[in-house]
Specification:
single chain, alpha/beta, Aspartate Aminotransferase, domain 2
């Protein structure tokens, strides 16, 4: 068994329990990244204007196989899922009174995006309240669709939510929405390489995910999947460049409008085959299960320390490699900084409306010592009576 700490570039002096935010790139993948950057600098004109298209196609093919997407041309690389949600929100032709049905536990950047475009169109971004703790997929689905009205145009939902760390039952929700004739949009930022994912089976209209999180690609590597029947909706690019009204259009506006959008370093996109090979080499599914078990084994200790209760059953239906612990603090941002600066622990403390969550993530390089350090720090801060009520 390799020492995974030696494979990653993470600062060894930090208890790194925040893989969920931006991931971390193993050294072999980072070396592959630098290889592509050197190719770009060796002959930038050929790489950007000619060869890059073929390299990107090969990378998308490997990603399509990994995500169970039948056609690689239903995928395009983008820098982050927020880009994808902006592109979709701009293009789905919202009318006054239209409603986008979502939950009240979505990612803040996406909430802001929908709020902007709905406000401009006179539409409604309807954040349906989800009772916590969650219990069953059936109860969650019913609670979600209580927000359905004749004006509902689309549903937008996270596969795994950022603040709560919960795996949401996207399969029954997407299926029901599809049967109702609604547009289905899934924010899967945390899902690839974190939970089993078959886009072919899920069949959403739109699905966006990050490769730079749990797939361990360099930062700024994400994708957007668009079902063929939904492709024509994306009539206006976010960035107008040579792919718009192209001299030689490919017939695929998803790629024409979004693949080559001016000069940029797309080297991170080309590392995806190396990411997949790395996970295969080190049996990443098994490592993921080991990490999941560490997450759920330690969670009760944190609930006990902080005097709070789980947001869900502690099983793989609701939790993967991260869990959010409710806590009471008047200053979550200060608590997060204190944990880092004084205890050398990288862990997020996040707001979700009136609630505060501490979310820890476990990756293959983490050990029980990291979680013990966090537990000891919280107990010490709690005794001081400064930041934890």
């Amino acid at each position: 068994m390799p020492n995974f700490k030696d494979l990653f570039l993470i600062n060894p002096d930090i208890h790194f329990l925040n893989f969920g935010s931006f991931g971390a790139c193993p050294a072999p993948i980072f070396e592959n990244y630098q290889y592509w950057q050197r190719q770009l600098e060796w002959e930038p004109v050929q790489m950007i204007a000619f060869d890059g298209v073929g390299f990107l196609a090969n990378s998308r093919q490997k990603l399509a196989e990994y995500l169970d997407v039948a056609d690689k041309d239903d995928l395009v690389y983008i820098t982050n899922p927020s880009f994808a949600i902006n592109l979709i929100a701009k293009n789905i032709s919202l009318q006054p009174g239209d409603e986008i049905l979502t939950t009240n536990i979505e990612y803040g950047a996406c909430d802001r995006t929908w709020n902007l475009y709905c406000k401009k169109a006179g539409a409604i971004y309807k954040r349906q309240h989800i009772p916590l703790p969650v219990t069953t997929a059936e109860a969650f689905t019913e609670a979600f669709f209580k927000g359905l009205t004749p004006n509902t145009k689309a549903i937008f939902i996270s596969h795994i939510t950022s603040s709560t760390g919960l795996i949401l039952p996207v399969e029954p929700i997407v299926q029901r929405a599809r049967e109702l004739g609604l547009i289905t949009i899934v924010d899967g930022a945390h899902a690839p390489a974190h939970v089993p994912l078959s886009i072919e089976q899920l069949q959403p209209d739109y699905y966006t995910g990050a490769c730079h999180k749990w797939m361990m690609a360099p930062k700024g590597c994400s994708f957007l999947y668009v079902n063929k029947k939904s492709r024509s909706i994306l009539a206006e690019p976010l960035i107008v460049s040579w792919g718009y009204e192209a001299l030689h259009p490919s017939g695929n506006i998803l790629l024409d409008y979004n693949q080559m959008i001016g000069t940029r370093d797309f080297s991170a996109f080309l590392t995806v085959p190396a990411c997949i090979e790395f996970m295969h080499q080190y049996n990443w599914k098994e490592q993921s299960q080991i990490c999941h078990q560490m997450v759920v084994d330690y969670a009760p200790k944190f609930y006990d320390c902080l005097g709070t209760k789980p947001l869900s059953p502690l099983d793989n239906q609701w939790l993967g490699q991260m869990v959010s612990i409710p806590l009471r603090t008047p200053q979550p941002e200060q608590l997060q900084r204190k944990l880092f600066t004084e205890y050398h622990i990288e862990v997020p403390v996040m707001r979700q409306e009136a609630d505060i969550y501490l979310r820890y993530s476990i990756q293959a390089f983490n050990t029980k010592d990291n979680l013990e350090a966090l537990l000891d720090a919280l107990q010490h801060i709690k005794k001081q009576g400064e930041l934890i009520n």
